[in-house]
Amino acid sequence: MGGTLNVISNEGWEHLDPGASYFQIDYLVVYATQTPLYTFTPTSDKPVPLLASGPPQISDGGKTLTVKIKSGFKFSPPLNRAVTSKDVAYAFQRMFNPKVQNGYASGYFPIVGSATSNGKPISGISTPDATTIVFHLTKPFAATMAEALTLPGTAPVPPELGAKDDSSSPSKYDSDPTTQAFTGPYMIKSYSAGRSITLVRNPNWSRSVDGVRPAYADQIVWNAGVDPNVAARQTLASTNLLMADGPPAPVLKTAYLTKKTQLSIAPLGAYYAALNTTVPPFNNINLRKAAIAASNRAAYLLARGGKLVGQVATHFIYPEVPGFQQAGGYKGFGEDFVSSPTGNMTVAKKYMKLAGYPSGKYTGSATVTIVGSNSDPGPQEMQIVQNGLAALGFKTTIKAVPQQTMYSKFCGYVKAHVNVCPTAGWIEDFPDPYAALFVPFDGNAIVPINNSNWSVLNDPKVNSLIDKASAITDLTARYQAFAQADKAIVDDAAAIPEIWADNALVEGSKVKGVLDPWNDDWNLSFSSPS
């Protein structure tokens, strides 16, 4: 088809290094420019071979996983050489290099020797030939790991480029993404952090070798940092724009009423207000329960756009994830502190008294720091949380920052010690409850930087329940076991479960945007200018 695909957004990019990339907006670029072993497509919720030539082979009772890769993939200029299994092995090696700041490898890839590899070759990975890679695991986890081979960190990285950058802390492979080696249909031609990016065709990419991505556009031009109200209205008035983040509630209403053909909606995952369990005041579980009970989660839903974009949540396995029904469905587990969508001050004061505040009001010295997005509806969401806490006597401070900064400098940076992160959202990495719960709530997933366990929850009971559930292969028993882990997280009051979300996206009148249900956003390799 050719032509230019134009994209606009408020949010910018955080990490375009495939080994560090772990956010929705980043994925739109990384999955267009890189080639993971497997992928999900707009029409498949099962992993589809991408760099791999076929399904992974599982042996040794689930402790060995073997992948064959296709011949014919080449790195972009100026490298211009064939991709081999050693490039995939190096991609895994660097995921376990703390300088790369990967956020998920330790949980999804329990490879022998990886925990102590520190960026060196991993003893549990072998490459018997140029198209074969074998993973030896510490436990019977191959079936779950096979799903995780869709993540961007599995995309090949040439050691001759990566090793030098990865010796710096943090790795410099992310500092200028135009110098990376690309294996996808597009290359990054120009990049201005948080402002703009241009993708052009990779001359070494072959549609016939790839076999999955049609890559209709000749180039993709993306402008970020645009006010979301302006971006949404501009998109709806255009013929040729895709908006990569959701429109604010007023524009969403207009789109639904007057331009429904330019509106797409897909399940998004969940939004919740993470409560930092490690620092005062919310290192007290009863204060966390009081904060949840006092929160008006229905107002949070309204700020996002109302029932058109979701419903009030009661737990952390969301409706599109297997195990949702076993976790009580929409009703949840029935705990009193999450039973009222609009808040219940009687219940909240009960927990304040259990926390040692007989008046039902907080009289301690800690000031609660609330950090969230400075773009709509972030300020409203922070105010809603602040209102609930103020009613309980907490002193609060709000810090509004760009969404990518909220993750990189505050909520995803453990040493920042942020008390509440009310504009954080989580999408499962693949359709399994392990991918919905492990990274945001298991203590083993906590990393110093690029951390997505925003509550910094490290409860041995939760960790054990998730670990045991992950080893169960019978799906009925597996989902029931994860429901028990979900209940333990709710009982820990690690976060205010705000909404199970749907992502509303708008596009111009002639552009053909194609939604990726697994990432709940546009797939740039399948979308076309007209």
Write the layout of secondary structure elements.
Elements lengths: L3 E5 L15 H10 L4 E4 L2 E6 L7 E3 L4 E5 L16 H11 L9 H4 L16 E5 L2 E5 L5 H7 L10 H8 L19 E7 L3 E6 L5 H4 L8 E5 L4 H10 L3 E3 L5 H10 L4 E13 L9 H10 L2 H8 L5 E3 L32 H10 L12 E7 L4 H13 L4 E7 L1 H9 L8 E7 L6 H9 L18 H11 L4 H17 L3 E12 L8 E2 L4 E2 L8
Parallel strand pairs: 1-10, 1-11, 14-15
Antiparallel strand pairs: 2-3, 4-5, 5-7, 6-7, 8-9, 9-10, 12-16, 12-17, 13-17, 18-19
Output the strand order for the largest sheet.
8-9-10-1-11
Number of strands: 19
**Whole-number mean pLDDT:** 96
The backbone outline, from C-alpha atoms, is globular
Give the fraction of residues assigned to helices: 25-40%
Low-pLDDT runs = none
Work out the radius of gyration.
23 Å
Oligomeric description of these chains: single chain
Secondary-structure content class: alpha+beta
> In DSSP terms, counting alpha (H) and pi (I) runs of 4 or more, how many helices?
16
Beta-strand content? 15-25%
Q: What's the story with the biggest beta sheet? A: 5 strands, mixed
Q: What is the terminal-to-terminal distance?
A: 8 Å
